[in-house]
Amino acid sequence: MTLKIGHLGPTGTYSEAAALAYARAKLAGVESCLQPYPNIAQTLKAVAAKEVALAIVPVENSIEGGVTMTADTIWQLVASLQIQQAIVLPIHHALVSVAEDLSHIETVYSHPQALSQCQLWLQQHLPQAVRIADNSTTAALATLAANPQAAAISSVRAANLYQLPVLVRSINDYPDNQTKFWAISLQPTLAGNRTSVAFSLRSNTPGGLVTALGFFANRGLNLSRVESRPSKRSLGDYLFFIDIETDRYNCRQLKSALADLDAYAETVKNFGSYDTTIIEVL
Amino acid sequence: MTLKIGHLGPTGTYSEAAALAYARAKLAGVESCLQPYPNIAQTLKAVAAKEVALAIVPVENSIEGGVTMTADTIWQLVASLQIQQAIVLPIHHALVSVAEDLSHIETVYSHPQALSQCQLWLQQHLPQAVRIADNSTTAALATLAANPQAAAISSVRAANLYQLPVLVRSINDYPDNQTKFWAISLQPTLAGNRTSVAFSLRSNTPGGLVTALGFFANRGLNLSRVESRPSKRSLGDYLFFIDIETDRYNCRQLKSALADLDAYAETVKNFGSYDTTIIEVL
């Protein structure tokens, strides 16, 4: 049986590269096929609806931070999505265009995160170009061959796939740019060195967040990430996404910390425990 | 002497509306003039460079969350920017266009936050339209009169200023949409019911964030907001922005909590203590 893996498309995105890296590292011998989706929310909904067995979605970037659509969607979906693996990818953005040189470029297309990750470079080298926010870094590539006034911020790999020239390499503002992806499915995950949980608090609990985080800290469990997102109920009302460092030695402490959180918080979603694969070269 | 107030331009932005509301509420009798800037970073840099006495910048929205450019810039600037006041504005987005109806619209311009705040509406009513991320909600308005295939997400106030028709009112996905702005200057602020601080931790401190937040919680000081941003050093390394509820009864506790944080954290920036003005109707 072929395993279907959903990712943000069209072909050539960093999400697709992460999906290929995941299949290579973790699904050796399993026949798999990739299924692109037009945006991150639809990719996650495809897992919930069992259209695909697995989805690969970006979670956070080392420069621009959390991918808000991923956090907001996994919180909102009723299905209990579970993280199977984290995949960390090095990001090297390139300016892709058939233009002869930068002076001809009037518009630059990419995903908002990629545009942000190259904002200083764009300000310096293409101050007059209009920046167009696409759903992905590759959405515009199919139209670039016919448009010498346009460019896209994408990867060298994507440029090769679309047979387009790379005009400038390595245009990220910070050379050490990485993105973390999650491989998500409906299968429960129980073991791994990282556990991800999201929760909302009953409103107006004084010291509420510190109390909630204390359930973990007081048991010697370290938090490697805390991110807040608006609950969308009112200004100042948040959800919290936390990653907890875990291993087989402290799973009893984790269980009791989670039980305390369950009793204290309004809603808790446990996205499971998983390991991280770091990809050095694509 | 005329007080210069910088804000994200061009004229008509929500930042300008917040600046006008601030001047009305807090600068009665003071002659002031508004100075638009092309992006948020330049607005804040203008205060640091004393080009303007005050800047009004968006901080967070009740639906889309933190405005990352504001957080990243006030952290990076060497000048000690101080928050004088928070201003909360109701946000009612409108679709502005000279098009006869929605079927003619091929592109929609706005600030990325506004595009995100209307993403469900756009998906449903303008699924084929290209979304263009501008530096502000009003950057495209000057060109709309000549372009019946284009629309902008902006306010009714901005449409009136540019003498453009409002095609659809109230297109935000969540009707209860508010944005908080900060009025920022170089003048030290010492009193108010909210205190904003940002800090980075020495790397690999286990339980570091909980320890840092505990300095406040253990003294009965409530945190109304915790937001993490990448330090841009490496994936998993963060800065934290916190808002502390304060009043004249607990300023001694605040002082000692901040002293503990100063000793414990790597870098601490105190943006001052201030009150909040809530604007009901623009």
Q: Can you describe this structure?
A:
2 copies of one chain form a homodimer. Chain A has about 280 residues and is of the alpha/beta class. Chain A folds into 3 domains: about 5-90 and about 180-185, D-Maltodextrin-Binding Protein, domain 2; about 95-170, Periplasmic binding protein-like II (D-Maltodextrin-Binding Protein, domain 2); about 195-275, Alpha-Beta Plaits (2-Layer Sandwich). In chain A, about 30% of the residues lie in helices and about 35% in strands. Chain A is built from 9 helices and 15 strands. Chain A has helices at about 15-25, 40-50, 70-75, 110-115, 120-125, 140-145, 155-160, 210-215, 250-265, and strands spanning about 5-10, 30-35, 55-60, 65, 80-90, 95, 105-110, 130-135, 150-155, 165-170, 180-185, 195-200, 225-230, 240-245, 265-280. In chain A, strands 1, 2, 3, 4, 5, 11, 12, 13, 14 and 15 form a 10-stranded mixed β-sheet that branches. In chain A, strands 8-7-9-6-10 form a 5-stranded mixed β-sheet. In chain A, helix 1 (about 15-25) links the parallel strand 1 and strand 2. The model of chain A has no long low-confidence stretch (mean pLDDT about 95). At the A-B interface, helix 4, strand 8, helix 8 and strand 13 of A face helix 4, strand 8, helix 8 and strand 13 of B. Chains A, B: It comes from Chamaesiphon minutus (strain ATCC 27169 / PCC 6605). Chains A, B: Pathway: Amino-acid biosynthesis; L-phenylalanine biosynthesis; phenylpyruvate from prephenate: step 1/1. Chains A, B: One of its GO terms (cellular component) is cytoplasm.
